[in-house]
C-alpha cells in the first residue's frame, strides 16, 4: 500500500524543499507550516499592524480581538476550561523558566524536584539551576529498557520531600509515551505540583491536560505547524494562582508608581512586553487548519509511516534502535559507524535528519553513546520520503563499512 | 600555489578532481585513515576541542622550522577533514601561519559546506583553536 499524504500540498515548505532535492525528516526539531498559517501572518502585517490590549483605534482593536481569539483557540485545542489558563511565552523554554521562577518562593532547602532521565535540556536546566539557587535536590527518575520512566523506581523516588514533578509526555529522543497518569498520581499523592513537557506529544493526537491531572502543560507553536516565537503554558487555575510575577515591564502592569506597582493577574501579568502578535495570530490559523482535518485519518497516516520506518530500520544489519519508539520518530545507531559520519553522509544526499545528542546530553551519557541519528515524521511526509531515506542510508552505510 | 606544502598540493589535486558527494566522502575517508592515531595518554580533556559533536583532540608544538600539529577524532569523516587541514598547516612558517585563510583552503578543496555555521561537526571549533594556539 503506497503511503500518500493527502495534506502534503498544504505545506509549501515541504514542496519547496522537495524541488531542491531535500527530504525533510526533522520535524521533531521544527515543523513545516501550512499555507493558511503563512496567509494569517502576512494578513496581519499587510492589513495594518498594531499593539494589543491598549489603544482604542481600529487596528489595535482588530489585533487584540485576533490575538485573544488565538488564546481561545489554544484553550479549545487543549480542552481548557478558560482562555485565562493559557499564557503565551516566546517559546517552550521560556515557559519552563516562567514556572521555575514563578514557583521559586515555594521551595525550601532540602525539598526535591523530580524529573526523568530523558528530559530535553529545556525541562532539565531550569530545575537544575533552581535547585542550585535554593539548595534543593534534583531527583532523576530512571528509565526501563523500552525507554519509559521505570514506575516501580519512580514510586520509591517520589516521596514526601518531592515538591514538583516535571516530565516529558513523548520523548524527543526515544519516541516513547511516558506513563503520565501513573506518575502524576504518585506526585499528587505526595502533594507535589506536576508539569508536563508536551513539546513533542502535542503534535501527535489530541491531549487534555485537565483530564491528565497535571498542574502545568508546556508546548511550543513551531513544532505544532505554527510559527516560531510562541510558546504556550497551560495551567490549572489553582496552580496559576501560586505563580509569582517574574518579568516586569509593559503590558503586565496595572498601576505603576515610582516606588511601587501593582500587576495584572494571569494571563496578562505573565506576558510582559509586547508579545509576538503576528505569530500568536498565525498559531491560531495553524490550529484552525489542524481542527479541519480528520483526526483518525491523521493518526492512521502517522502510525503507518512510523511502522514503515521501524520495519525498514530493523531490517538492516547492525542498525540498533534506541528504546522502543511508539510514535513520531526513531533514533538509531549503527554498529561500528560513528553517528556523526552517518548524519553527514545523509545530509550530503539531501536527507534532513538530526545527528547528535538532541538536546539531551545526560541521557546519552547514561546510555553510553556518543549520539545517534534521529528520523522524525510529520503529517506531510509520505512513503516516497522514507524510500529515499532508506536508499540514502544504504549508500551511506556501504561507503562507511 | 608553489608555496603550498607538498601534502597540501596533493590534497588540492585529488579533491579538485573529485566530483559529487560520494567521491569526496571516499577521499575524506582515505585521508582520514592516514592520520596517525593519538596515543591514549594524549587523549586528554586539555587536548580536547570543545564544541564538536564527536570527540576531537588537537596538539600543537612550535619548533624552530615551524609548527607541528597532531589531531584525531573518533568520527571518520572528521578525521579526513583534520588530515587535509594538517596538510595545509603542518610545518608552516610560524610568522605566516596566523595569516592563513583556512576557510579559503577548505573552499579550494570543495569542502566549504563543512564550515557552515549550522554544522556541528566541529571543524569551526578546530579552526578557532588553531587560531588561538598560533597567536599565543
TrEMBL record, chain A:
Residues 23-388 form the Aminotransferase class V domain. Gene3D superfamilies: Aspartate Aminotransferase, domain 1, Type I PLP-dependent aspartate aminotransferase-like (Major domain). It catalyses: (sulfur carrier)-H + L-cysteine = (sulfur carrier)-SH + L-alanine. Pfam families: Aminotran_5 (PF00266). Keywords: Pyridoxal phosphate, Transferase. Its cofactor is pyridoxal 5'-phosphate. This is cysteine desulfurase.
Automatic annotation (TrEMBL), chain B:
Signal peptide: none annotated. The lineage of its organism: Bacteria, Pseudomonadati, Pseudomonadota, Gammaproteobacteria, Pseudomonadales. This is Fe-S metabolism protein SufE. It comes from Pseudomonas mangrovi. Transmembrane segments: none annotated. Belongs to the SufE family. It holds the Pfam family SufE. PANTHER family: SUFE-LIKE PROTEIN 2, CHLOROPLASTIC, SULFUR ACCEPTOR PROTEIN CSDE. Residues 14-131 form the Fe-S metabolism associated domain. It comes from the Bacteria. Gene3D superfamilies: 3.90.1010.10. InterPro entries: Fe-S_metab-assoc_dom.
Amino acid at each position: 500500500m503506497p503511503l500518500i499524504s493527502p495534506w502534503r500540498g498544504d505545506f509549501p515548505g515541504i514542496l519547496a524543499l522537495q524541488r531542491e532535492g531535500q527530504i525533510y525528516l526533522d520535524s521533531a526539531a521544527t515543523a513545516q507550516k501550512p499555507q493558511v498559517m503563512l496567509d494569517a501572518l502576512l494578513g496581519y502585517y499587510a492589513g495594518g499592524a498594531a499593539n494589543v490590549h491598549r489603544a482604542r483605534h481600529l487596528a489595535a482593536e482588530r489585533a487584540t480581538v485576533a490575538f485573544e481569539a488565538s488564546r481561545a483557540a489554544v484553550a479549545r485545542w487543549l480542552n481548557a476550561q478558560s482562555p485565562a489558563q493559557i499564557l503565551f511565552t516566546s517559546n517552550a523554554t521560556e515557559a519552563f523558566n516562567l514556572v521555575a521562577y514563578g514557583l521559586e518562593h515555594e521551595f525550601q532547602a532540602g525539598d526535591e524536584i523530580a524529573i526523568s532521565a530523558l528530559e530535553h535540556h529545556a525541562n532539565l536546566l531550569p530545575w537544575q539551576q533552581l535547585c542550585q539557587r535554593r539548595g534543593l535536590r534534583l531527583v532523576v527518575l530512571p528509565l526501563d529498557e523500552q525507554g519509559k520512566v521505570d514506575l516501580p523506581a519512580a514510586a520509591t523516588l517520589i516521596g514526601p520531600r518531592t515538591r514538583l514533578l516535571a516530565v516529558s509526555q513523548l520523548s524527543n529522543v526515544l519516541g516513547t509515551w511516558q506513563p503520565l497518569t501513573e506518575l502524576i498520581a504518585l506526585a499528587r499523592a505526595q502533594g507535589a505540583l506536576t508539569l508536563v513537557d508536551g513539546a513533542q506529544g502535542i503534535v501527535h493526537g489530541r491531549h487534555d491536560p485537565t483530564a491528565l491531572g497535571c498542574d502545568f502543560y508546556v508546548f511550543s507553536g513551531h513544532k505544532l505547524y505554527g510559527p516560531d516565537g510562541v510558546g504556550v503554558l497551560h495551567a490549572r487555575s489553582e496552580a496559576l494562582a501560586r505563580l509569582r510575577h517574574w518579568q516586569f515591564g509593559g503590558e503586565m502592569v496595572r498601576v505603576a508608581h515610582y516606588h511601587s506597582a501593582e500587576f495584572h493577574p494571569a494571563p496578562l501579568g505573565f506576558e510582559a512586553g509586547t508579545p509576538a502578535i503576528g505569530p500568536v495570530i498565525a498559531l491560531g490559523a495553524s490550529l484552525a487548519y489542524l481542527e479541519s482535518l480528520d483526526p483518525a485519518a491523521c493518526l492512521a497516516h502517522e502510525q503507518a509511516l512510523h511502522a514503515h520506518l521501524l520495519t525498514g530500520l530493523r531490517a538492516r544489519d547492525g542498525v540498533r534502535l534506541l528504546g522502543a519508539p511508539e510514535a513520531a520518530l526513531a533514533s538509531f545507531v549503527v554498529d561500528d559507524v560513528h553517528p556523526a559520519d552517518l548524519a553527514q553522509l545523509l545530509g550530503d544526499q539531501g536527507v534532513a535528519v538530526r545527528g547528535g545528542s538532541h538536546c539531551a546530553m545526560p541521557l546519552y551519557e547514561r546510555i553510553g553513546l556518543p549520539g545517534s541519528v534521529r528520523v522524525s515524521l510529520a503529517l506531510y511526509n509520505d512513503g516516497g520520503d522514507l524510500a529515499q531515506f532508506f536508499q540514502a542510508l544504504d549508500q551511506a552505510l556501504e561507503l562507511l563499512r | 600555489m608553489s608555496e603550498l606544502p607538498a601534502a597540501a598540493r596533493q590534497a588540492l589535486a585529488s579533491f579538485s578532481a573529485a566530483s559529487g558527494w560520494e567521491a569526496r566522502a571516499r577521499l575524506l575517508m582515505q585521508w582520514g585513515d592516514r592520520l596517525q592515531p593519538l596515543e591514549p595518554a594524549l587523549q586528554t580533556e586539555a587536548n580536547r576541542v570543545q564544541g564538536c559533536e564527536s570527540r576531537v583532540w588537537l596538539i600543537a608544538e612550535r619548533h624552530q622550522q615551524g609548527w607541528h600539529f597532531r589531531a584525531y577524532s573518533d568520527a571518520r569523516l572528521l578525521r579526513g577533514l583534520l588530515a587535509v587541514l594538517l596538510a595545509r598547516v603542518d610545518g608552516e612558517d610560524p610568522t605566516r601561519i596566523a595569516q592563513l585563510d583556512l576557510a579559503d583552503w577548505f573552499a579550494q578543496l570543495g569542502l566549504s559546506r563543512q564550515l557552515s555555521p549550522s554544522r556541528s561537526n566541529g571543524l569551526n571549533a578546530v579552526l578557532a583553536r588553531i587560531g588561538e594556539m598560533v597567536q599565543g
